[in-house]
Design goal:
131 residues, two-stranded antiparallel sheet, alpha/beta, 34% helix, five-stranded parallel beta sheet
Length: 131
């Protein structure tokens, strides 16, 4: 077995810088809930899953912009608030990819660590879209 696959990679970004950036741009469920309770005007929670998933359950107050529509809907998103993206769970890459796309367009961003699965696991409220 080639163990070099597991060896640390050489990057221009060191471990400390990577972890500092990760902590800055990754929202935790507790941190997001606290912000929503104390300073809701500072954030926009953006569910980047498809509409059906959003209708089934979403974080209360979240806006649904499926990841495939991010670029076409940029003009409707605020640049004066931090946009917190989320998707299904820790394995879903839609939220970090959407946050990257938004950051490249000049938005303040974070993504929710663990997605809606971790949000629910912590017992935080969800909403459903009325049919």
């Amino acid at each position: 077995m080639d163990l070099s696959l597991f060896a640390p990679k050489t990057h221009t970004l060191g471990a400390a810088e990577y972890l500092r950036a990760k902590l800055e741009y990754e929202a935790t469920p507790y941190g997001l809930m606290t912000t929503l309770e104390t300073e809701p005007e500072k954030v926009l929670v953006l569910d980047v899953r498809d509409r059906d998933a959003f209708d089934e359950e979403h974080i209360r107050g979240a806006l649904n912009v499926p990841a495939t529509e991010i670029v076409s809907r940029l003009s409707g998103l605020p640049k004066d608030r931090t946009v917190v993206t989320y998707c299904w769970d820790m394995t879903c890459a839609l939220a970090p990819k959407a946050a990257l796309e938004l950051a490249q367009k000049g938005f303040k961003v974070q993504f929710l660590a663990g997605g809606i699965a971790e949000w629910k696991h912590k017992g935080f409220p969800i909403a459903k879209t009325a049919a």
